[in-house]
Write a structure and sequence with these properties.
Length: about 400
Amino acid sequence: MKYTLFIAALAISIQSFAQNPLGFSFDDGKQYVEMSFKDESNLIVIPILVNGEGPFNFILDTGSESGMIFDRFVISENNLVNARTVPIYAQNGSKITDLLVANNIDIQMKGINGQRQSMLVLEENSINIENILGVQAHGVLGSELFNRFVVEIDYVNEKLRLYEPDKFKAPKGFKKIDITVKDFRPYITARIKQKGERKLDVNLLIDTGASSALFLDEQRNDRIVLPEKTVDHALGSSLSGTMEGKVGRIKRLSFGRNFNFKRIVTSYPDDWQVKSVVGMKGREITRSGTIGSDILSRFTVIFDYHNSAVYLKKRKEYRDSFKFNTAGFTFISKGEESKQFFVSRIIPNSPAQEAGFLPNDEIISIEGRPIFFYSFTDINGFLREPAGSKLSIVIKRNGELFKKDLVLRKLL
């Protein structure tokens, strides 16, 4: 698992009150635009102007039916005049929170304008993405762009390319795979092979807002079983709080005719607050999980909702193994510019537990260098070094410094 968390702010299904894809257009009659993005913690972060202010960082998320703003200061109070309130409920019927529907929002990106948009807004920012993933984000752009344009994501060069659908022709070297678009989100049929089980075809949401590789709904699909070896883990953060579950590996995942992966690190939520049946009555499908960015980023990906297709071209990282934490702890960032890092959780029976790490220990240095030299991504890289590697970490606890030496090992 490249990262243990994914953006589940919209994991609770919301009907798309707040999208107006027809309001998006190219500047000056263009039919193609290329813009840069930042690949942060396996998420696509793009700068946008909101009502002429900004830029603000938004995550491009195919798993979101509607755009969402995390921080109310991004928009004007005028956008909230007569705003509707949307109650959000869990699967068990209990109310989680209220969202507001802000109207008449103007969005600008390089070469693109979105006029009179509506977006969901959190009354209070309860999703601390920067602390959890090291990504400063003010909101999410969902299906608005994907419904309007053909969207190419070039993870190698960190480029986003948008095309007019009626002028688009797939570039050479890409393989076409059929998808199904339900409730403004893309689904793919994949085949999984679990140890000791027959091959199983499953419908999976393609979610650029999920930073990990694969999520499976073991709770509601009797044919999905937990692997023999799993670890308890925090899998994500949502409006209802931290998503708990287990992490293990499945033997194989395949889709299309040409794409196969082995020993995929897979998350199994204990209580996944998403709809398992999606689409209109009579044409619904059953969702059994999610393909996230730790798989998607091994390709250059083109989403063509208009023709119910994705086009994939392999990157050199296609065959890379799927990594999981070998140190045995997770961390969050705090402080000015989020440059302080603290241990958040300890994985049982791991090197970190054996070395005596505790939650809330502050990380002072790694391998002899002060922690401010490292980014969030750098630290995650240390925690996923190969088994047998040695890692020296200085932590601070109750004002005292302690040096901890770890010998990393496989936990899955």
